[in-house]
């Protein structure tokens, strides 16, 4: 069983991590005066969380719309136990259409196990029944063709694990993914993709799930209504390699119009091809965590982006935490009409901003690290943001590029001198099962109480430090004794 705390059922832990004095009470903070910007308040009766954007009683922002969502621990538990599921049907047939035939024949609740290394044609996930498809240990089946996996309208309670998708194509590069797509004007719910490998997309996005598409007089750029949203679509521990080649609203993993999307522990390397890494447009109450995104090139090349498509009648919302983004044009972009919480993300070596809060976005940033980008954290004119305990250092133009008049509090750092700015061992993404590496990193970090300052390696050794211990220079550069 996975025992990780679910932030959506434990709001205080997630929202109040950066609050010096967290408040709570029976009812809204109508008559409560904030003691400082960024203070948090929890309404115990109505289960609503607030953050102070100013110092008067009317300055409390309701952030519960950001942190609603589904039971993501349940998704992780399903993924953790899939290998132990006893199959009802075993597929050994290597015929091109054999996988679709087997799925069509499944009855409600059955488990299909694939025992072949075949390359299958594209498949459709039907509505009307729940089922699981998994791959037996030692096998690597693949799917190729147009829209490798098509989710039919009404599909629900389906888990697909262990399959590879390669060289897939699409008929609508801005509305349908090459590897995974949604039926035009379809809605689905409770769909989990686990340990899926996406590779070598020709033109388009690897995953693009969109209600609106450029078909039958429709247009992909139309904003979906709340009633047109799919619900609880999850991608867990998937690998994306060269999975997008589209700089027009393309992404390796793109979702439009999803309530409570869960994007967890995925690895994305796009080898500088065009498009974004993770893109959530017109999505609400999403959780994006523990992903590693790198080498996102071309135009519109953010590592992770939350944005609107068209003119939605609602604000988009989500939580991003413990992600590592590196070597992208821009690291994390929170764009138009988005409410977001960003905590413990690490962004480095990006051509432009590490984190950008744009236009009409509202964001709460706590404990993020941005280094060796052009700008560390940028707040555009028109955005509203609260910054607490973020560290930006070594960025070539600005560590904090503030264009909206916000005064960065002293709790944010422009060096890495203090261990409070270093991720804990638990926040470092690691491969499942690699416990030796995890425990060794945890042991090192947990034993650090304060990092001393020395001019160079020789000075540190004279002072008594031994190989493997940490020190920092006067400019805040973290070093390891050798």
SSE map:
Blueprint: H1 11-15, E1 23-25, E2 40-43, E3 48-52, E4 60-62, H2 72-80, E5 89-91, H3 98-105, E6 110-114, E7 119-120, E8 123-125, E9 131-135, E10 142-143, E11 149-151, E12 156-161, E13 164-166, E14 180-182, E15 189-194, E16 197-199, E17 204-205, E18 207-209, E19 230-236, E20 239-241, E21 244-245, E22 251-256, E23 258-259, E24 262-264, E25 267-269, E26 276-281, E27 286-289, E28 292-296, E29 302-307, E30 316-321, E31 324-328, E32 330-334, E33 338-343, E34 346-348, E35 353-357, E36 362-366, E37 369-371, E38 375-379, E39 384-388, E40 391-393, E41 398-402, H4 435-446, H5 457-462, E42 470-472, E43 478-480
Parallel strand pairs: 1-2, 5-6, 6-9, 7-10, 8-11, 9-12, 10-13, 11-14, 12-15, 13-16, 14-18, 15-19, 16-20, 18-22, 19-23, 19-24, 20-25, 22-26, 24-27, 25-28, 26-29, 27-30, 28-31, 29-32, 30-33, 31-34, 32-35, 33-36, 34-37, 35-38, 36-39, 37-40, 38-41
Antiparallel strand pairs: 2-3, 3-4, 17-21, 42-43
